[in-house]
TrEMBL record, chain A:
It comes from Sodiomyces alkalinus (strain CBS 110278 / VKM F-3762 / F11) (Alkaliphilic filamentous fungus). Residues 92-117, 225-254 are annotated as: Disordered. Component of the GINS complex. This is DNA replication complex GINS protein PSF2. GO terms for biological process: chromosome segregation; DNA replication; double-strand break repair via break-induced replication. Residues 11-69 form the DNA replication complex GINS protein PSF2 N-terminal domain. Residues 132-222 form the GINS subunit domain.
TrEMBL record, chain B:
Component of the GINS complex which is a heterotetramer of SLD5, PSF1, PSF2 and PSF3. The keyword Nucleus applies. It comes from the Eukaryota. Belongs to the GINS4/SLD5 family. GO terms for cellular component: GINS complex. This is DNA replication complex GINS protein SLD5. CDD domains: GINS_A_Sld5, GINS_B_Sld5. Keywords: Chromosome partition, DNA replication, Nucleus. Residues 167-220 form the DNA replication complex GINS protein SLD5 C-terminal domain.
Length: 254, 221
C-alpha cells in the first residue's frame, strides 16, 4: 500500500509530469472536442494548429491522426545558441530559463499567468506554462527540456527538422550541464551557506542528481552539526550581551 | 454562483485559467510537494481531493455509458478519456500512498498532538489510530506482556530521550520560487540569504523553506 519510493521525484515520475506539457499539433483528421477531466480538448480541424497535452499529442501521432510541431527551442540553431552560452558566455552557471510568459488582456495590461493575480490565487508553474508549444521563445531551455526533447525524438522524429543533428546537440548539451551540476556541489567546500542557487536547471537533471546533491548536503550537515550548534549558542550569547549593553546605555541616558 | 464567478467569466484576465486547469495544477503541486517534503503536509483544506474524486467517479460512469456504443468515432474518444482517467487515478493514488508511507513511518508522532492530527484527513486518522492499536496489541500479546508494566509503553520519554521517532525537518529540499522573494536559509557555517527571482530553483533546508512554501511563494520541485 505505502509507496516504497524514496523522497523526491524519481525520473519516471518526472517523465509522467512532462507529459502534461502542452505541445502544438497539426491535425490530419477532424476530431470533435472531447470532455476530459482536465477540460475540453479543442476541436481539431485540419490544417488548423491546436495545443494539446503531450500524452494526447503522442497518442494522435501514433495513430497518424496528427503531426507534432516541435517547439522553437528544439531547432538546431537555438540549441547551438544555448551551447554557446553555456560554454563561452557563462561557463559557470546554467543558461537562463525562458522569460515568464505574458498575455494581453482587453484593457492594455500585460498579464503574467505565473504570478498570482487578484482573482487567481493559483500561480501556474511547469508543466502548465505552455513552454513547449510553437509560441514558446527560442534560445532558452524550459524546465522539462530534456524529457520533452527525448520523447519527441523517440516518437516523432519525422516531425523534427534535422533530427540527427538535434540529437547530437542535445547529447552535448546534456554533458556540459551534467558537468556543471556536479561542479555545483564543489561550492560546498568553502563552507555551507543556507541556500544553494540553481537557476535554469531542468527537471530531469534534478531528478538524476537529486540523491547525490542531497546526500552531500546531508552529509555536510551531519558532520557540522555540533559546530553549528556551538556557533548558534555563541550567536545567542552575543545577542543577549548586546541587548544587555543596550539596556545599560538606556539606563545611562534615561 | 456568486459575484466572483460572474466576474471571472466576463474578465478575460482571470478567465485565461479555466477551473479544470487550476484543479490539475493544484493536484500536481500537492503530489510533487508530498513526494518531496520530509514530513506529512496538511491535507488540502479547499476540498480539491473530494472534488477530483467526485469527477473521477462521474467520468467512470460516462465511460460505462459509452462502451455500449461501438461507433468507431466515439471509440477513439473513449480511448482518450480512459487514458486521461488513468493518469488522474495515478496522481491521486500516488499522492495517497506517499502520505500513507509517511504515516506508517512516524505514526505515533502524527498522533501525538492535535496540531499534527489536524494534518490527517478523517480516513487517514482512522487508519493511523486503528493500525497503531493493532500493532501495539500484537506487540503486547507476542512479547511486551512479559516485560515489567512500566516498560510496556511505546511512548516513553524517560531520560530525556523520546521513543517517538519524528521526521528530520532539516532535510534539504529543492524548491521553485513562484514570485520574487528574499530567501533566508540556515546553514552549517553561516546563515545565508539569496535574492531569488520567480522560477529560480533553490536548495535549502525544509525547516527554512516551509513558511515560504505554505504562504504560496514557492513550491517544492
Amino acid at each position: 500500500m505505502a509507496l516504497p519510493l524514496p523522497s523526491g521525484l524519481v525520473p519516471n515520475e518526472v517523465g509522467f509530469l512532462c507529459e502534461m506539457e502542452s505541445v502544438t499539433v497539426v491535425p490530419r483528421q477532424r476530431l470533435d472536442t472531447i470532455d476530459l477531466l482536465s477540460g475540453q480538448t479543442p476541436t481539431l480541424r485540419p490544417p488548423y494548429r491546436a495545443n494539446l497535452p503531450l500524452w494526447l499529442a503522442l497518442l494522435l501521432k501514433k495513430q497518424r491522426r496528427a503531426n507534432i510541431v516541435p517547439p522553437p527551442w528544439l531547432h538546431p540553431d537555438s540549441l547551438r545558441g544555448v551551447i554557446h552560452h553555456e560554454v563561452k558566455v557563462d561557463p559557470l552557471a546554467f543558461s537562463p530559463p525562458p522569460p515568464p510568459p505574458a498575455r494581453a488582456d482587453a484593457r492594455g495590461n500585460a498579464h503574467h499567468p505565473t504570478r498570482p493575480s487578484a482573482y487567481d490565487d493559483v500561480a501556474l508553474s511547469p508543466p502548465f506554462l505552455s513552454s513547449c508549444t510553437s509560441d514558446a521563445p527560442a534560445g532558452a531551455l524550459p524546465y522539462h527540456w530534456f524529457e520533452v526533447a527525448e520523447i519527441l525524438l523517440a516518437h516523432a522524429a519525422d516531425d523534427i527538422p534535422s533530427a540527427s543533428e538535434v540529437r547530437s546537440l542535445l547529447r552535448d548539451l546534456h554533458e556540459i550541464r551534467a558537468a556543471k551540476m556536479r561542479k555545483s556541489t564543489a561550492d560546498l567546500e568553502q563552507g555551507v551557506g543556507g541556500v544553494l542557487h540553481l537557476r535554469g536547471v531542468g527537471a530531469m537533471e534534478l531528478a538524476e542528481s537529486r540523491a547525490f546533491i542531497l546526500g552531500v548536503v546531508e552529509g555536510v550537515r551531519r558532520l557540522g552539526a555540533s559546530a553549528e550548534a556551538t556557533r548558534r549558542e555563541e550567536e545567542e550569547e552575543g545577542r543577549a550581551r548586546d541587548e544587555d549593553e543596550d539596556d545599560e546605555d538606556d539606563d545611562m541616558f534615561g | 454562483m456568486d459575484i466572483d464567478d460572474i466576474l471571472r467569466e466576463v474578465d478575460p484576465v482571470s478567465y485565461s485559467i479555466p477551473s479544470e486547469t487550476r484543479d490539475l495544477q493544484a493536484l500536481t503541486r500537492a503530489w510533487v510537494a508530498e513526494r518531496s517534503a520530509p514530513e506529512l503536509l496538511e491535507w488540502p483544506a479547499d476540498g480539491i481531493f473530494e472534488r477530483v474524486n467526485e469527477r473521477i467517479k462521474k467520468q467512470i460512469e460516462k465511460i460505462e455509458d459509452m462502451t455500449g456504443d461501438m461507433d468507431p468515432k466515439t471509440n477513439f474518444a473513449l480511448i482518450v478519456i480512459q487514458t486521461e482517467l488513468e493518469r488522474f487515478k495515478f496522481l491521486v493514488r500516488s499522492y495517497l500512498r506517499a502520505r500513507i508511507a509517511k504515516i506508517d513511518k512516524h505514526t505515533l508522532h502524527y498522533l501525538s498532538n492535535p496540531t499534527l492530527r489536524a494534518r490527517l484527513s478523517p480516513t487517514e486518522l482512522a487508519y493511523a489510530t486503528r493500525h497503531q492499536a493493532l500493532l501495539h496489541n500484537h506487540y503486547l500479546s507476542s512479547f511486551l506482556s512479559s516485560f515489567p508494566p512500566q516498560l510496556q509503553n511505546l511512548n516513553d520519554t524517560a531520560g530525556n530521550i523520546s521513543m517517538i521517532d519524528s521526521p528530520d525537518l532539516d532535510t534539504a529540499v529543492f524548491i521553485r520560487l513562484l514570485r520574487d522573494a528574499l530567501v533566508e536559509g540556515r546553514g552549517t557555517d553561516s546563515d545565508g540569504a539569496i535574492d531569488g527571482k520567480a522560477g529560480d530553483i533553490l536548495i535549502l533546508r525544509w525547516s527554512s523553506a516551509k513558511s515560504l512554501v505554505e504562504s504560496g511563494g514557492a513550491e517544492l520541485a
